[in-house]
Amino acid sequence: MTNTLFQDFNERSKEVSKYFMFLKSLEQGTTKLSMQGQGGISKIKEIDSELIKTLKASGFLLLYNLVEATMRNAIEAIFDELRGQGISYDQVKPELKKIVLKNLKKRNPDIIFSSITAISLDIITAGFDKKDLFSGNIDGLKIRTTATEYGFSHLTNYAKTGNGSDLLIIKTNRNDLAHGFKSFADVGKDKTANELLEIKKKTVRYLRQILQNIEQYLSNQDYLDSATAGTP
Asked: Is 222 part of a structural domain of the chain?
């Protein structure tokens, strides 16, 4: 299960990395526009500085997409593991029981009723819908809160990840763009391509370490309630 999770994360990370490397080459002038003029003659044109600002701002959208998709898939992997291992409601930690009940509260009782056969098992995932997990609100604090709720570690190597501190910048800029509070030029004017690359690197390292924490959480079955250990 986690292999698929890491594979998706790596593919998305590569997409983001390619974009920021392209952005850096544009800012440095090593990549230029080639435009075909009259008579089929190509002309080299410098990239407009305002366009570069817009492209930089778009980088925050890509980064936020990576963050939210990664964490949504990670939480889905936890529920997939519980279902795959045949874990019952009585076996999971109290914190997870609360999450299960909150999920059920959001659902139509008629739909839940039709999807449950063995209630102690099916109730775990019956109310789960990954679309409800995050919606423009995820940053380092949200990940730490989520980790506490589910019981996996949020600890990372601060020197390499900043413990996800850059995620607040990413979320804020993404929301300012998504809701029209700021223009792309306004958001993109304050960061160099190198600064954005550094934010990207730390964000990817942070997310990878969080995924590794979740992998260990699943491997050790830390979702189980110690009080019911050994209960079939």
From this structure: yes
